[in-house]
Amino acid sequence: MVYLTRLEHFNAAHKLYNPSWSKEKNEEVFGECANENWHGHNFDLYITVKGKPDKDTGFIIDAKHLSSIIQEHVTEKLDHKNLNLDVDFLEGKMCSTENLVVEIWKQLLPHIPADVKLHSVKLYETPRIYVEYFGEEL
Amino acid sequence: MHKVAVFRKEHFNAAHRLHNPAFDDATNERVFGKCNNPHFHGHNYELIVKLTGEPDKDTGYVMDLKVLSDIIKENVIKRFDHKNLNLDVAEFKNLNPTAENIAIVIYNILRPLIKEQLQLQIRLCETERNFVEYPA
Questions:
Q1: Residues 6+ apart with CB under 8 A from B115
Q2: CB contact under 8 A, A38 and B84
Q3: Residue A86: domain span
Q4: What is the CA radius of gyration of chain A?
Q5: For chain A, what is the domain count?
Q6: S-S: A80 plus which of A130, B41, B73, B123, CB 3.0-4.6 Å?
Q7: What is the C-alpha to C-alpha distance for residues A43 and A79, in angstroms, rounded to an integer?
Q8: Per-residue pLDDT tens digits of chain B, which is 136 residues long
């Protein structure tokens, strides 16, 4: 099995805020991330697929094609957006990076070509914080 | 005369939007594109503060970088980090928070806090690929 990773970027605003809690409790739990006027990040998204190199092309997948799939189904919906307000697949969800990778996995999975498998979604929120998801049941 | 440049790197993340209230909606959309999103977007900003001057004869320092770091944190990072630049930072009430303008604002905040004989230059990276410097 060979693993291929494609890196894409998006930047977005969000806040961590649970609407069923008081403002004070949100500030206690989420600190400065609960700022009601939002804050934002440059996100780096690493999508890894696995498969066997094709005997004619040597590719497991054309990386440009994988890039187009990620852009069409994920980054175009997230880039320069407010994650809490503008993204249909995050509606009603807490906009943590953990939840974001799981939802990105769900968005991508139906569009990954049959001859490769989606292996992982890795998302950097800052150069110092990242989360990974391998599709295990939650 | 042996001038040396010293640098301190700090970071903050913030939401913003690019919008000129004097333009109509279509012009804002045309000029600023997706950066005009009314719901804002955001960045991890990296701030590099450069000081140029002669090392002090007693300490060997152009400036103690821990002291510089404290000044930047107290006067810039505390006010910008996890904020909405358009809504939460007074300097951008009537100023478009482009990387260019953010660098100028940070320069103007820091200049009076740094010894006059040291040259100050601000480099602000909005993404890994877009960055600005002031003064140019």
A1: B53, B63
A2: yes
A3: 2-133
A4: 17
A5: 1
A6: B41
A7: 9
A8: 799 999 999 999 999 999 999 999 999 999 999 999 999 999 999 999 999 999 999 999 999 999 999 999 999 999 999 999 999 999 999 999 999 999 999 999 999 999 999 999 999 999 999 999 999 9
In this prediction the ipTM stands at 0.85
Residue B100 is encoded by which pair of tokens? 């260019």
Mention the CATH class of domain B4-134.
alpha beta
Q: Which of B41, B81, B88 sits opposite A13 (nearest CB)?
A: B41
- Shortest alpha-carbon distance between residue B128 and chain A (Å): 9
Rounded to an integer, what distance in angstroms lies between the CA atom of residue A122 and that of residue A131?
6
Gap between the Cα atoms of A134 and A65, Å rounded: 21
CB contact under 8 A, A86 and B37: yes
pTM, two decimal places: 0.91
